[in-house]
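To: structure desk
From: M.T.
Subject: fold request, one chain
Message: Could you run this one when you get a chance? Sequence is below, nothing fancy, just the single chain.
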Amino acid sequence: MTGFVPTYRRRPSPLHAARAGVATAFCAALCLVAVVHASPLVLGAALGGTVAAAAAAGVASELGRAARLVVPLALLLVAVNALTSREGETLLIRGGEVLGWRIDVTLEAVAYGAVAALRVTVLMMALALFTAVVDPDDTLRLFRRVSYRSALTAALATRLVPVLARDAARMGEAARCRRTPPPRAGAARAALRSALDRSVDVAAALELRGYAGSRKPALERRPWSRHDVRVACAAAGIAVAALAALAAGAGAFEAYPELTLSAGAGEVALAAALLTLPVVPFAGAAARLGVARA
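Reply: Done. Structure tokens follow.
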């Protein structure tokens, strides 16, 4: 699965330079569009804006890795809905019966499945962008004052999971080198014992360093940089545009009993905003990294 999961690497982009809360809000705003809208025009624009932001941030390859998982899932959604839904008036394929189930494929069922797949694609691409541009350590620091021990546990887990995975892989390689390799259950028990030993060692080390009696850290106040302001404005603009269009009734889409798609001025304006706002933080001389503050 490592070939499908985006990974965070520090890069010289406004999204990477923005604080974790602001960058998270930016990705959440893109997810909001997929949650509240079902119009293919709007969802396609949101997907285009997400990809454009990823390309501008230098993480397009990371989204490409996630797409290797998303595209098959999206095609599966379309196929399952087309084969199982009996609604719709435009018949495309009249099939036979399989185990007593009549297989008739309608245009409306295909369209509904395609919109559901597009929604899932936008959500997963926005989450992949979040994984690629937001520092996980900075994200965990947001929760230090809410639950210090939970944040510490999550931080340790993110660090130890790759280590334990490498330990298990090495044990598997060592087992295969033996003349009579042990059963898989034995290798799994050895990996589990190693993980438990590491957890005990880490717990003892943390206790010696005083983490058992630690208190919530003091509130850290950090001035907002210009990148924070630009990314926050873009996130707010995306969220406001999506909610305003929803309140105005723009982006209407109905698949059953027949296809109904609204494509007026409101939808075109929203699509243009979703294609433009995600790349606003990367535009102009102010997008260059530096030490200036807002």
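Reply (cont.): Residues 14-140+224-287 form one domain. Let me know if you need anything else for the meeting.
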